[in-house]
Amino acid sequence: MEFSNGRKRVIDKLTRGLELINHLQVMLNGDGALEQSLAEGLVDKILDTFKDSLSILSSTESNGISRFPAVNLDGRKSEDSSESCKTFEWKDRRGRYKRRRTSETWTKDTPTLFEDGHAWRKYGQKVILNAKHPRSYLRCTHKYDQGCQASKQVQQIQDDPPIYRTTYLGHHTCKNLFKPCQIIMDSTVKDSSIILSFGSGSTSTKPVEYKPASRMIPAISSSDYFVAQTTAFSSGADHGDLFSSDVYSCTASTHSMMEADDMLLESLFDDLPEF
DNA sequence: GGGATTTGACCCCA
DNA sequence: TGGGGTCAAATCCC
Questions:
Q1: CA of A119, C1' of B5: distance in angstroms
Q2: How far is the CA of A226 from the C1' of C2 (A)?
Q3: What does residue A102 show for φ and ψ, rounded to 5 degrees?
Q4: How far is the CA of A132 from the C1' of C10 (A)?
Q5: What confidence score (pLDDT) does residue A88 get?
Q6: Per the database record, which ranges form the WRKY domain (predicted)?
């Protein structure tokens, strides 16, 4: 059952990749005035679909379910292809795992523990050398039911005022946000920026107006994305405040993190006016 | 009862 | 070799 679920998701991803390639092909066959940033954005998305597919295949393989060879995100075959055979040796598997190698990571420092819209499950806590506070280890709740490889580590790195460092590892391949996010394009904030507002069950999020800004459009496929907290919106902060306070930025990693909101981004692309 | 968290054990890798 | 990441049994909580 898990295998068929993973298989369906791989098919979905690959189908999506084909659609994007067709989209790109149509654009290339048009008047030839394809915006380079748009093309790069499409290529990024296509690459993401194939990376996700490989990720799903790898995860189902690690569960001993898949018949596909284990493949890392960089395309290399798993160095220990016999690992899946060990899944039949269930006696005391404690500590028997394949530590992931250099996966994409990015960090965020915040004064509070914030809600990022995904469901996390804590699977460990560790006292770190020369650190006052233990580090918590969390994985995506949908690690097993959807093969999501995302995980994060949270550690308090400062007491007064408290600062929490969250390190994200891997990308969400699941599709389970608590609530869909809202996408805002605001030309008044900063060039090449998009703000995402994730819904939260505990806060009364103000509806945020979606403001297409034509001069921002070439920046949509830029690698720079910015993610803001819902709480900032609900507190009435304006977009300028968001960028000066509790917003982090990064490049390809954030793009991948927003994968769960891919449909919204796709609709954003679809809404682009003709140049 | 089932899902989430805690916690000690185990193993990878710098 | 030891710090850090992950596993899984025990425990907690709703």
A1: 14
A2: 39
A3: -65, 85
A4: 27
A5: 35
A6: 109-172
Q: What one-character-per-residue DSSP string does chain A give?
A: -HHHHHHHHHHHHHHHHHHHHHHHHHHHTTTS---HHHHHHHHHHHHHHHHHHHHHHHHHHHTT---SPPB-TTSPBPS-TTGGGGGG--TT-TT------S--EEEEEESS----SB-EEEEEEEPPTT-SSPEEEEEETTTTTS----EEEEEEEETTTTEEEEEEES------BSS--EEE--TTT-TT--EEE---SSS-PPP------GGGGGGTTSS-EEEE-HHHHHTT--HHHHHHSSEEEESHHHHHHGGGGHHHHHHHHHTPPP-
As ranges, strand B nucleotides with an atom below 7 A of a protein CB are 4-14
Encode pLDDT of A205-244 as tens digits.
332 222 222 222 222 222 223 333 222 222 333 333 332 2
Query: Which positions on chain C have an atom < 7 Å from some protein CB?
Result: 3-9
User: In A 208-247, which Cβ lie closer than 7 Å to strand B?
Assistant: none
Question: Which CATH superfamily is A105-169 part of?
Answer: WRKY domain (2.20.25.80)
CA of A92 to C1' of C8 (A): 8
Which residues have a Cβ under 8 Å from the Cβ of A173 and sit 6 or more positions away?
A: A9, A52, A55, A56, A146, A147, A148, A149, A150, A259
pLDDT confidence of A147, banded at 50, 70, 90?
confident
Residues 183-212 of A, Cβ under 7 A from nucleic strand B: none
